[in-house]
Amino acid sequence: MSWGRPDKSVVCKEQPVTPGSPRRVATCWTTAGATVPGDVAATSPEDIRARVEAAAAAGFDGIGINVPDLAIARDSHGDAAIRALLDDHGIGYLELDALGGWASTGEERVVSDARRRILLDAAGKLGADLIKVIPPIGPVADVGPLVSEFATLAGQAADVGARIGIEPISVCKVATPAQALDLVRGAGHPAAGVILDNWQISRAGLGVDVVRGFPPEWIASVELSDGTAEPGADFFADCFEHRRLPGSGELDVAGFVDALRRSGYDKVWGVEVLDAEYRRLPVGRATELAYEALVAATTGRPRLDE
Questions:
Q1: 110-145 confidence digits (pLDDT tens)
Q2: Cα–Cα distances in Å, from 113 out to 103, 146, 182, 200?
Q3: Is the pTM of the predicted complex or chain greater than 0.85?
Q4: What are the phi and psi torsion angles at 300 (to 5°)?
Q5: What domains lie within the chain, and their CATH numbers?
Q6: Strand 242-243 to strand 274-275: parallel, antiparallel, or no bridges (unpaired)?
Q7: Is the peptide bond before 98 cis (omega within 30 degrees of 0)?
Q8: CA separation for the pair 165, 271 (Å, rounded)
Q9: 163 near 130, Cβ under 8 Å?
Q10: Both ends of the chain: CA-CA distance in Å?
Q11: Mean pLDDT of 4-12
Protein backbone atom coordinates (compact mmCIF):
# COMPACT_ATOMS: atom_id res chain seq x y z
CA MET A 1 0.00 0.00 0.00
CA SER A 2 1.23 3.51 -0.77
CA TRP A 3 -0.07 6.69 0.77
CA GLY A 4 1.72 8.97 -1.72
CA ARG A 5 2.99 12.39 -0.76
CA PRO A 6 1.63 13.92 2.46
CA ASP A 7 -0.73 16.84 2.62
CA LYS A 8 1.28 20.02 3.18
CA SER A 9 -0.73 20.74 6.32
CA VAL A 10 0.80 17.74 8.07
CA VAL A 11 4.38 17.92 6.85
CA CYS A 12 6.88 18.50 9.63
CA LYS A 13 7.83 22.00 10.68
CA GLU A 14 10.96 23.44 9.19
CA GLN A 15 13.47 21.44 11.23
CA PRO A 16 16.38 20.74 8.89
CA VAL A 17 18.55 17.94 10.21
CA THR A 18 22.20 18.57 9.54
CA PRO A 19 24.97 16.08 10.28
CA GLY A 20 25.57 15.99 14.02
CA SER A 21 22.36 17.81 14.97
CA PRO A 22 20.28 16.19 17.73
CA ARG A 23 17.21 14.10 17.01
CA ARG A 24 13.92 14.92 18.73
CA VAL A 25 11.87 11.79 19.22
CA ALA A 26 8.24 11.16 20.15
CA THR A 27 8.70 7.86 21.97
CA CYS A 28 5.99 5.24 21.48
CA TRP A 29 3.53 6.23 24.23
CA THR A 30 3.76 9.92 23.35
CA THR A 31 1.67 9.42 20.18
CA ALA A 32 -0.28 6.33 21.27
CA GLY A 33 -3.42 8.17 22.36
CA ALA A 34 -6.04 6.56 24.57
CA THR A 35 -4.30 3.33 25.45
CA VAL A 36 -3.13 2.22 28.87
CA PRO A 37 0.48 1.01 29.06
CA GLY A 38 1.48 -1.84 31.30
CA ASP A 39 -0.28 -4.56 29.35
CA VAL A 40 2.29 -6.17 27.05
CA ALA A 41 -0.45 -6.49 24.40
CA ALA A 42 -1.73 -2.90 24.73
CA THR A 43 -2.43 -1.33 21.35
CA SER A 44 -3.03 2.23 20.23
CA PRO A 45 -6.40 3.23 18.73
CA GLU A 46 -4.46 5.52 16.39
CA ASP A 47 -3.34 4.25 12.99
CA ILE A 48 0.36 4.63 12.30
CA ARG A 49 -0.36 7.28 9.67
CA ALA A 50 -2.13 9.51 12.21
CA ARG A 51 0.76 9.08 14.63
CA VAL A 52 3.44 9.88 12.05
CA GLU A 53 1.48 12.89 10.81
CA ALA A 54 1.03 14.18 14.37
CA ALA A 55 4.73 13.77 15.15
CA ALA A 56 5.81 15.46 11.92
CA ALA A 57 3.33 18.32 12.24
CA ALA A 58 4.55 18.99 15.78
CA GLY A 59 8.19 19.14 14.64
CA PHE A 60 9.60 15.75 15.64
CA ASP A 61 12.05 13.99 13.33
CA GLY A 62 11.93 10.71 15.22
CA ILE A 63 9.20 8.40 16.46
CA GLY A 64 8.84 5.22 18.50
CA ILE A 65 6.40 2.35 18.13
CA ASN A 66 5.80 -0.69 20.32
CA VAL A 67 5.62 -4.28 19.12
CA PRO A 68 1.83 -4.82 19.08
CA ASP A 69 1.27 -1.59 17.11
CA LEU A 70 4.19 -2.45 14.87
CA ALA A 71 2.59 -5.79 14.02
CA ILE A 72 -0.74 -4.14 13.17
CA ALA A 73 0.94 -1.50 11.02
CA ARG A 74 2.99 -4.05 9.09
CA ASP A 75 -0.01 -6.30 8.50
CA SER A 76 -2.19 -3.38 7.41
CA HIS A 77 0.23 -1.43 5.25
CA GLY A 78 3.44 -3.35 4.62
CA ASP A 79 7.04 -2.42 5.33
CA ALA A 80 7.69 -0.45 2.15
CA ALA A 81 4.65 1.78 2.69
CA ILE A 82 5.59 2.41 6.33
CA ARG A 83 9.12 3.39 5.37
CA ALA A 84 7.75 5.68 2.63
CA LEU A 85 5.36 7.25 5.15
CA LEU A 86 8.23 8.02 7.51
CA ASP A 87 10.42 9.40 4.73
CA ASP A 88 7.65 11.56 3.26
CA HIS A 89 7.07 13.17 6.64
CA GLY A 90 10.71 13.78 7.49
CA ILE A 91 10.86 11.11 10.20
CA GLY A 92 14.42 9.93 9.83
CA TYR A 93 14.78 8.19 13.21
CA LEU A 94 12.81 5.12 14.30
CA GLU A 95 12.95 3.25 17.59
CA LEU A 96 11.18 -0.02 18.38
CA ASP A 97 9.85 -0.73 21.86
CA ALA A 98 10.58 -3.09 23.63
CA LEU A 99 12.17 -6.46 24.37
CA GLY A 100 11.89 -8.08 27.77
CA GLY A 101 12.66 -11.61 28.93
CA TRP A 102 15.83 -11.77 26.83
CA ALA A 103 17.85 -13.29 29.68
CA SER A 104 15.13 -15.62 30.98
CA THR A 105 14.51 -19.34 30.49
CA GLY A 106 11.55 -21.59 29.84
CA GLU A 107 8.29 -20.32 28.37
CA GLU A 108 9.17 -16.68 29.06
CA ARG A 109 12.26 -17.07 26.91
CA VAL A 110 10.27 -18.72 24.11
CA VAL A 111 7.92 -15.72 24.03
CA SER A 112 10.83 -13.29 24.23
CA ASP A 113 12.70 -14.97 21.40
CA ALA A 114 9.63 -14.74 19.17
CA ARG A 115 9.37 -11.04 19.99
CA ARG A 116 13.09 -10.64 19.31
CA ARG A 117 12.69 -12.11 15.83
CA ILE A 118 9.87 -9.68 15.08
CA LEU A 119 11.90 -6.70 16.30
CA LEU A 120 15.04 -7.64 14.41
CA ASP A 121 13.13 -8.36 11.20
CA ALA A 122 11.25 -5.06 11.44
CA ALA A 123 14.42 -3.14 12.31
CA GLY A 124 16.15 -4.43 9.20
CA LYS A 125 13.25 -3.85 6.83
CA LEU A 126 12.17 -0.47 8.19
CA GLY A 127 15.65 0.89 8.84
CA ALA A 128 15.13 1.28 12.60
CA ASP A 129 17.84 3.02 14.58
CA LEU A 130 17.20 1.66 18.09
CA ILE A 131 15.65 -1.39 19.71
CA LYS A 132 14.75 -0.76 23.33
CA VAL A 133 15.46 -3.45 25.93
CA ILE A 134 13.92 -3.81 29.39
CA PRO A 135 16.03 -5.44 32.13
CA PRO A 136 14.80 -8.50 34.02
CA ILE A 137 12.40 -7.66 36.84
CA GLY A 138 13.68 -8.40 40.33
CA PRO A 139 16.11 -7.32 43.04
CA VAL A 140 19.33 -5.66 41.95
CA ALA A 141 21.95 -8.25 41.12
CA ASP A 142 25.39 -8.56 39.64
CA VAL A 143 25.01 -7.78 35.93
CA GLY A 144 27.79 -10.25 35.07
CA PRO A 145 25.45 -13.13 34.14
CA LEU A 146 23.60 -10.83 31.71
CA VAL A 147 26.67 -9.73 29.77
CA SER A 148 26.85 -12.63 27.33
CA GLU A 149 23.15 -12.43 26.47
CA PHE A 150 23.33 -8.69 25.96
CA ALA A 151 26.42 -9.00 23.77
CA THR A 152 24.51 -11.45 21.57
CA LEU A 153 21.64 -8.98 21.32
CA ALA A 154 24.00 -6.18 20.35
CA GLY A 155 25.55 -8.27 17.61
CA GLN A 156 22.13 -9.21 16.23
CA ALA A 157 21.04 -5.57 16.24
CA ALA A 158 24.20 -4.52 14.45
CA ASP A 159 23.56 -7.14 11.78
CA VAL A 160 20.32 -5.34 10.84
CA GLY A 161 21.79 -1.84 11.15
CA ALA A 162 20.30 -0.96 14.55
CA ARG A 163 21.50 -0.35 18.09
CA ILE A 164 20.35 -2.02 21.31
CA GLY A 165 19.63 0.26 24.25
CA ILE A 166 18.91 -0.90 27.80
CA GLU A 167 16.97 1.34 30.17
CA PRO A 168 17.83 1.01 33.87
CA ILE A 169 14.64 0.71 35.95
CA SER A 170 14.55 0.84 39.73
CA VAL A 171 12.48 -2.35 40.15
CA CYS A 172 14.73 -4.33 37.80
CA LYS A 173 18.04 -6.15 38.12
CA VAL A 174 19.66 -3.28 36.19
CA ALA A 175 18.43 -0.37 38.29
CA THR A 176 20.95 2.43 37.89
CA PRO A 177 22.95 4.09 35.11
CA ALA A 178 26.15 2.73 36.64
CA GLN A 179 24.88 -0.86 36.48
CA ALA A 180 23.69 -0.36 32.90
CA LEU A 181 27.09 1.05 31.97
CA ASP A 182 28.80 -1.99 33.52
CA LEU A 183 26.58 -4.19 31.37
CA VAL A 184 27.19 -2.45 28.04
CA ARG A 185 30.91 -2.13 28.69
CA GLY A 186 31.02 -5.80 29.59
CA ALA A 187 29.24 -6.63 26.34
CA GLY A 188 31.97 -4.68 24.58
CA HIS A 189 29.97 -4.10 21.40
CA PRO A 190 29.59 -0.64 19.82
CA ALA A 191 25.91 -1.39 19.10
CA ALA A 192 25.23 -1.72 22.86
CA GLY A 193 24.10 1.39 24.68
CA VAL A 194 22.24 2.80 27.68
CA ILE A 195 18.91 4.64 27.55
CA LEU A 196 18.94 7.30 30.25
CA ASP A 197 15.44 8.18 31.47
CA ASN A 198 15.32 11.02 34.00
CA TRP A 199 12.08 9.77 35.61
CA GLN A 200 13.41 6.24 36.09
CA ILE A 201 16.64 7.61 37.53
CA SER A 202 14.70 9.74 40.03
CA ARG A 203 12.69 6.69 41.07
CA ALA A 204 15.94 4.88 41.82
CA GLY A 205 16.54 7.60 44.40
CA LEU A 206 19.30 9.26 42.39
CA GLY A 207 19.89 12.90 41.50
CA VAL A 208 21.01 14.42 38.23
CA ASP A 209 24.67 14.26 39.23
CA VAL A 210 24.59 10.52 38.53
CA VAL A 211 24.75 11.25 34.79
CA ARG A 212 27.41 13.93 35.05
CA GLY A 213 30.46 12.56 33.28
CA PHE A 214 28.56 9.60 31.81
CA PRO A 215 30.51 8.55 28.71
CA PRO A 216 28.47 9.81 25.75
CA GLU A 217 29.61 7.04 23.41
CA TRP A 218 27.66 4.54 25.53
CA ILE A 219 24.41 6.54 25.52
CA ALA A 220 21.92 5.15 23.02
CA SER A 221 19.24 7.77 23.75
CA VAL A 222 17.80 10.01 26.46
CA GLU A 223 14.14 10.10 27.53
CA LEU A 224 12.59 13.03 29.37
CA SER A 225 9.42 13.36 31.38
CA ASP A 226 8.39 14.84 34.73
CA GLY A 227 6.48 13.98 37.85
CA THR A 228 6.44 14.32 41.61
CA ALA A 229 9.66 14.42 43.56
CA GLU A 230 8.35 11.74 45.91
CA PRO A 231 7.54 8.35 44.37
CA GLY A 232 3.98 7.10 44.41
CA ALA A 233 3.09 4.17 46.64
CA ASP A 234 2.65 1.87 43.65
CA PHE A 235 5.59 2.01 41.23
CA PHE A 236 3.65 0.76 38.23
CA ALA A 237 0.68 3.09 38.76
CA ASP A 238 3.13 5.95 39.18
CA CYS A 239 5.02 4.90 36.04
CA PHE A 240 2.01 4.42 33.77
CA GLU A 241 -0.35 7.16 35.00
CA HIS A 242 1.73 10.07 36.31
CA ARG A 243 4.71 10.68 34.02
CA ARG A 244 4.03 14.16 32.79
CA LEU A 245 5.40 16.56 30.21
CA PRO A 246 8.95 17.76 30.96
CA GLY A 247 8.80 21.02 32.88
CA SER A 248 5.33 20.40 34.36
CA GLY A 249 6.36 18.60 37.52
CA GLU A 250 8.88 18.66 40.34
CA LEU A 251 11.89 16.87 38.81
CA ASP A 252 15.08 18.71 37.89
CA VAL A 253 14.77 18.19 34.15
CA ALA A 254 16.92 21.22 33.32
CA GLY A 255 19.70 20.00 35.60
CA PHE A 256 19.54 16.53 34.06
CA VAL A 257 19.86 17.91 30.53
CA ASP A 258 22.68 20.25 31.59
CA ALA A 259 24.60 17.40 33.23
CA LEU A 260 24.42 15.35 30.03
CA ARG A 261 25.39 18.27 27.81
CA ARG A 262 28.38 19.01 30.01
CA SER A 263 29.35 15.35 29.58
CA GLY A 264 29.41 15.85 25.81
CA TYR A 265 26.06 14.30 24.92
CA ASP A 266 23.64 15.93 22.46
CA LYS A 267 22.36 13.26 20.07
CA VAL A 268 18.91 11.73 20.65
CA TRP A 269 16.40 13.44 22.94
CA GLY A 270 13.09 11.67 23.40
CA VAL A 271 9.98 12.69 25.29
CA GLU A 272 8.07 9.88 27.02
CA VAL A 273 4.69 10.82 28.46
CA LEU A 274 2.61 8.21 30.28
CA ASP A 275 -0.06 10.29 31.93
CA ALA A 276 -3.79 9.68 32.34
CA GLU A 277 -4.79 13.27 31.49
CA TYR A 278 -2.39 13.55 28.55
CA ARG A 279 -3.69 10.45 26.80
CA ARG A 280 -7.24 11.83 26.81
CA LEU A 281 -6.16 14.70 24.54
CA PRO A 282 -6.51 14.45 20.74
CA VAL A 283 -3.28 12.88 19.51
CA GLY A 284 -2.36 15.92 17.41
CA ARG A 285 -2.65 18.35 20.32
CA ALA A 286 -0.96 15.97 22.75
CA THR A 287 2.01 15.49 20.44
CA GLU A 288 2.29 19.24 19.85
CA LEU A 289 2.47 19.84 23.60
CA ALA A 290 5.08 17.09 23.94
CA TYR A 291 7.26 18.69 21.27
CA GLU A 292 7.00 22.14 22.86
CA ALA A 293 7.96 20.65 26.23
CA LEU A 294 10.92 18.77 24.76
CA VAL A 295 12.23 21.85 22.98
CA ALA A 296 11.87 23.91 26.16
CA ALA A 297 13.66 21.23 28.20
CA THR A 298 16.57 20.87 25.79
CA THR A 299 17.02 24.50 24.74
CA GLY A 300 15.90 26.50 27.74
CA ARG A 301 13.16 28.22 25.70
CA PRO A 302 9.77 28.53 27.45
CA ARG A 303 6.88 26.31 26.39
CA LEU A 304 4.22 28.01 24.27
CA ASP A 305 1.55 27.31 26.89
CA GLU A 306 3.45 29.17 29.62
A1: 999 999 999 999 999 999 999 999 999 998 778 999
A2: 10, 16, 24, 26
A3: yes
A4: 85, 0
A5: 25-165+174-272+291-299 (3.20.20.150)
A6: antiparallel
A7: yes
A8: 16
A9: yes
A10: 42
A11: 35
